[in-house]
Specification:
With 86 residues, the chain is an alpha+beta fold. It has one domain. Helix content is 17%, strand content 17%. The strands form three sheets. It has a two-stranded antiparallel sheet. A two-stranded antiparallel sheet has the order 2-3. A two-stranded antiparallel sheet has the order 5-6. It starts with a strand and ends in an 8-residue tail after the last helix.
Amino acid sequence: VIWGGEFGRTPMGENRSTTGRNHHIDAFTMWFAGGGTKAGHIVGETDELGFDAISDPAHTHDIHATILHLLGLDHERLTFRFQGRD
């Protein structure tokens, strides 16, 4: 089971007329369970405000490679490299 999204939300509210918070690409949560994942394993850390990644940031490509690995697939063979985005 994988739960998460490709971005988080800013840790603080903003002075805007609308409610809600902006997208935050630098800190977000993904949750994996089963399929060979390690229970209780945490990757990465943010500052005390949850604003900046301060250790072991994982890129979306890392998450993609991890999912393929857990499925027993070689991510090097299944990654589509397009315009230098690898």
